[in-house]
Structures
1.
Amino acid sequence: MQAFDTDLRNRIIKLVKGILEQNSLSADVKPQAKLVDVGLTSMDMVNLMLGVEAEFDFTIPQAEITPDNFRSVETLERMVATQLKLATAA
């Protein structure tokens, strides 16, 4: 399970860094850091949401599109892991 979690976290960090690079920004993206503090704007958050959906091949339920779930890599990782577990259980 640990390898899955590390892979999940790395894929999310890669998405965040990709969005920052599009804005000519670079940051050391730590799992606990607030995404707005590393440089993501509200429009970037929309791009991140779409990127997560494409990367992990699922649609984020409307109820899960909350500021709390998109606060940091860590919170995003928890939401994605939960959605992936629900998808495999279905």
2.
Amino acid sequence: MIKQELLDILACPKCKGPVELHPAQDTILCRNCRLVYEIRDGIPVMLIDEAKPADEDPVPAR
């Protein structure tokens, strides 16, 4: 699990917008770009080329 302190400083590499943890899939989500970034061995892989499109809105917006 990613600590909140790390999430607070992470930004989407594509749009530079905020990202959030999607705990059900253990991924990081950018709602603006609708991209999902994997977390491998506890490390977020914030590479645009490795991001996957978010199929649907997995978590209601806050």
